[in-house]
Q: What sequence folds into this?
């Protein structure tokens, strides 16, 4: 929510035409640049080399189980919100070998799977997704038990965040206090401003290395008017957000409603397909599989994304604990919004809305929470 | 190697198109390793030689459609320590199970000049309806990497990794953009067993359900979404009447759209 970054670096105004220089400075600094691009009629994250590859002039229409890209009337570089994949795919890869074992004379020799990672700039990460990274940091490397794969990759990341000036149809960061302005955790944050023929970015460094990059980009000192209109643009975005979750006592409320009939209703509509969890920027469940080759000479241990929506995820000797879809949906929502507080000291949801957009059945987490809170029982599927 | 003696492998064919057996021959790179690891004792597509009387592992392709096959499968079972069924025919009755929804006698009288020569059952049924099956490998056709995985697992005394979850998970692992949400294309992926590697969605097509129902498939919720995307009742019925038409969940859903 808070857009007024409190630090000593002076904010600068970069002309949109000079955005290329920012990318050049990142490239010269040895960073590969991951940024939004258009692929398969949607805005995904992929490697870019120049600003011309950004989806300038495009926006996204998001609804329950619905996503389309559309042309904008202006040439905004960041006139859309979050796409089908979050940045977690770079830090917590979908599938990765973690161990290899080779048979020796009378035993095995085990080695960690080697990987090299290169310095990478997350260019255009939104405030909600930035908050999600901070949550993953807490979960995966914030205690004595650390995920070495995540840690190694995370150390190589430079963050160029972009504040939102136009929310998407399923955004509710305002409820989760994660956006639409970035409060912390960035090296650089940009706010795009298009007004009366002027197209500029307000650029603010959050760290010394961010500051050094910005110094290589042509800019002028931001006037107080520019600062004010950037802040207003973000506040305007916040006002445009209509989706919300009432988070008051949400943990206690959900714990108290474990037997609410609404869980049965949503289970009738839920496909247990797992899309919601795989698109979620904070879901971190994984499965470990062991493979051998035909000769039995080598074995590989692979970690891949899994989900609390699969039957096998809750399998223990003798059977699965959560055999019903009711139990699986309840597990997901209650973990995300309630148990996460007990485990990691925050909500597990940042309000990015991906689980709503990418649910093929159009289930809306905000509506489920509201129904459980109000005690109303929905009789009919949407 | 764990086994001192090479295990004997047999491949058996029932009513099928041979496509699944061919998946084994298609494993060009792995085939030498397979041949090194097992003694292929019976394999109609690769050789005619049949040796020995018992087999450590039998791969069974095809469904049961004739009285003769209904007996033969019991012999195969008795001769096999492990019996693994491969492909949609063997695991659900296959595309030929479309007959199960109609009167077979009527077909016979239309198609054959001398119907009396035809000795066939009313229904095409999966192998597991007739004998105990140790493992089922889904797909029409099966995925060759999954077949190699099943063989490796068998040879090394472990469980094969062939997850029962939705095809959507394979889409997400691969980085596909969902065709249903982003393009409005009806897709069977949310109720379909993973295994193919999400081939059709990777080419902007909806899934055809070749691997049959996933665990806990919610077919009616998916049909409701298909209707919203504009699918007619007849096209929904046809979607579930594919290669796995007689798999319980798909059969029941198609029957709801029968009229
Ligand atoms: S949820 Fe908020 S921060 Fe995230 S994309 Fe939407 S408006 Fe931006
Ligand atoms: S639960 Fe849904 S809205 Fe919340 S962070 Fe995950 S995907 Fe985004
Ligand atoms: S809530 Fe939606 S996306 Fe999640 S498992 Fe259920 S149907 Fe799939
Ligand atoms: S394209 Fe089909 S299989 Fe892939 S995620 Fe979408 S609904 Fe699931």
A:
């Amino acid at each position: 929510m808070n857009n007024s970054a409190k630090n000593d670096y002076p904010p600068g105004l970069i002309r949109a035409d000079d955005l290329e220089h920012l990318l050049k400075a990142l490239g010269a600094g040895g960073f590969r640049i991951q940024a939004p691009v258009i692929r398969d009629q949607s805005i995904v994250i992929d490697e870019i080399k120049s600003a011309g590859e950004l989806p300038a002039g495009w926006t996204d229409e998001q609804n329950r189980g619905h996503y389309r890209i559309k042309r904008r009337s202006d040439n905004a570089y960041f006139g859309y919100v979050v796409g089908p994949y979050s940045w977690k795919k770079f830090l917590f890869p979908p599938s990765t070998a973690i161990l290899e074992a080779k048979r020796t004379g009378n035993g095995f020799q085990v080695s960690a799977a080697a990987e090299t990672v290169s310095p990478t700039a997350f260019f255009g990460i939104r405030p909600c997704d930035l908050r999600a990274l901070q949550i993953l940091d807490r979960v995966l490397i914030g205690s004595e038990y650390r995920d070495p794969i995540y840690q190694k990759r995370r150390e190589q990341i430079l963050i160029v965040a972009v504040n939102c000036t136009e929310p998407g149809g399923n955004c509710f960061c305002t409820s989760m206090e994660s956006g639409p302005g970035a409060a912390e955790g960035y090296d650089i944050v940009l706010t795009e401003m298009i007004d009366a023929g002027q197209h500029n970015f307000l650029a603010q460094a959050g760290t010394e290395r961010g500051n050094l990059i910005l110094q290589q980009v042509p800019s002028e000192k931001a006037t107080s008017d520019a600062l004010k209109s950037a802040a207003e643009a973000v506040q305007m975005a916040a006002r445009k957000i209509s989706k919300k979750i009432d988070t008051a006592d949400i943990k206690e409320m959900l714990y108290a409603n474990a037997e609410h009939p609404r869980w049965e209703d949503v289970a009738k509509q839920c496909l247990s397909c797992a899309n919601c969890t795989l698109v979620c920027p904070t879901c971190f469940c994984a499965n470990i599989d062991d493979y051998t080759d035909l000769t039995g000479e080598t074995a590989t241990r692979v970690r891949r994304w899994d989900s609390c929506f699969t039957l096998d995820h809750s399998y223990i000797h003798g059977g699965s604990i959560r055999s019903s879809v009711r139990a699986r949906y309840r597990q997901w929502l209650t973990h995300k919004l309630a148990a996460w507080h007990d485990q990691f000291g925050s909500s597990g949801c940042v309000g990015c809305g991906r689980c709503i957009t990418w649910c093929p059945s159009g289930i809306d987490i905000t509506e489920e929470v509201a129904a459980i809170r109000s005690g109303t029982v929905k009789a009919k599927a949407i | 190697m764990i086994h001192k003696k090479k295990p004997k492998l047999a491949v058996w064919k029932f009513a099928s198109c041979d496509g699944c057996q061919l998946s084994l021959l298609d494993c060009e790179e792995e085939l030498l390793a397979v041949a090194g690891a097992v003694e292929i004792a019976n394999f109609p597509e690769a050789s005619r030689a049949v040796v020995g009387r018992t087999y450590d592992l039998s791969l069974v392709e095809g469904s049961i459609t004739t009285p003769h096959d209904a007996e033969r499968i019991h012999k195969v079972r008795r001769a096999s320590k492990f019996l693994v069924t491969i492909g949609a025919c063997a695991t659900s009755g296959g595309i030929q199970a479309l007959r199960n929804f109609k009167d077979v006698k009527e077909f016979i009288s239309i198609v054959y000049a001398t119907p009396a020569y035809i000795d066939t059952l009313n229904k095409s049924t999966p192998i597991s309806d007739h004998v105990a099956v140790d493992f089922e490998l889904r797909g029409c056709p099966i995925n060759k990497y999954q077949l190699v995985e099943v063989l490796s697992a068998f040879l090394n005394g472990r469980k094969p990794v062939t997850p029962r979850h939705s095809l959507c998970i394979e889409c997400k692992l691969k980085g596909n953009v969902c065709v249903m949400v982003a393009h409005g294309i009806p897709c069977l992926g949310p109720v379909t067993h993973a295994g193919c590697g999400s081939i059709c969605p990777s080419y902007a097509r909806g899934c055809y359900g070749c691997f049959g129902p996933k665990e806990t498939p919610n077919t009616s919720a998916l049909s409701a979404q298909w209707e919203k995307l504009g699918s007619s009742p007849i096209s929904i019925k046809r979607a579930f009447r594919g290669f796995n038409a007689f798999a319980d969940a798909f059969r029941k859903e198609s029957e709801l759209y029968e009229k």
About this structure: Chain A has 13 helices and 16 strands. The radius of gyration of chain A is 22 Å. The first helix of chain A runs from residue 19 to 28.
